Every structure is written in structure tokens, then in C-alpha cells.
């Protein structure tokens, strides 16, 4: 489509300032004509800008309702997807929380088990150390007794000679 500008009449306010234009365009191949009131000064703009302004105005006026209806459908679709996604996230968070609770319970059970083993090991080690101390004391006493008996024997033997 090759539109041409048929007319471009400026519109003025009460103070003589240009506030818009009434522009008419046509397609010489099809004979289609289109005109629109547009905002802005189009006295010095090029032909393509004037044609674009008329077409934009036409599309906005005539297709806004259709575009609005389509956007409402898109918004509804996005809303449904958002709700579905939020539900998926909530389900995932719930599953992660349950898994975390299960793992934490296992960790606590293992920690308690290890604590009990350490307590038992410590008690056993302390008992073994106490028994070793008793044996060492007993051995020292026996050693002292043996040394004492040997010294007495040695003294006694020297006196008899």
C-alpha cells in the first residue's frame, strides 16, 4: 500500500496556536480514503509522518476494543499461569521442608547415638585409667616390698660374714 496525503489542515486554539491537524490520506491503487484529527503540528513534517499519524489514529480508534479484549484474555492466561506456578512453588517448599525435617531428625538421632557412644567410651576409658592407676600403685607397693626385702637380705647377709 502506497498512501499519499490528500490534505493537511492545521487546527488552532483560541490563541492562534496550532494544536492539531485534520489530515486525509488515500491509497491510489485501491481508492481507499482515510482521514483523522491528530494532535500536534503537522505543517512541516514529511509525508510519511503524516500518513503514520493518520494510520496510528485509525488503528487506535478502531482496534483498541479488539486489542483490549485480547489483552484481557492474555492477562487471564498469565494470571492462571502465575497461580499454577505459585502452587508449584508452594508444593516444592512443602516438600523441601518435609525433607529438611526428616534429615534433621536423622542428624539428631545420629548425634544422640554418637553422644552415647562417646559417653560410654569415656566412662570405659576412665574406668580403665582408674584400674591402671590401681595396678600401678599395687606394682609400686610390691616393688617397694621387693626392694625392701632385698635390702634387708643384703644387710642381713653382710652382718653374718
Structural account:
It holds the Pfam family DUF1366. InterPro entries: DUF1366 (IPR009796). This is Phage protein. It is a single chain. By secondary structure, the protein is α+β, with helices and mostly antiparallel strands. The chain has a 3-stranded antiparallel beta sheet, with helices on one face. It has one helix spanning 47-160; strands at residues 4-12, 18-26, 33-39. The protein has a domain at 4-63. The mean pLDDT is 88.
Element layout with pairings:
Layout: E1 4-12, E2 18-26, E3 33-39, H1 47-160
Antiparallel strand pairs: 1-2, 2-3
Summarize it.
Pfam families: DUF1366. The chain has 161 residues and is α+β, with helices and mostly antiparallel strands.
Strand content: 15-25%
Give the spatial strand order of the biggest sheet: 1-2-3
Structural class, from secondary structure content? Answer: alpha+beta
Q: Based on Cα principal axes, name the global outline.
A: rod-shaped
Unreliable stretches, pLDDT < 50, 5 or more residues? Answer: none
Main sheet properties = 3 strands, antiparallel
> Mean pLDDT score, rounded?
88
Quote the distance from N terminus to C terminus.
148 Å
Work out the helicity level: over 70%
Radius of gyration, in Å, reads 52 Å
Put simply, the count of helices is: 1
Order of helices and strands: EEEH
Number of strands: 3
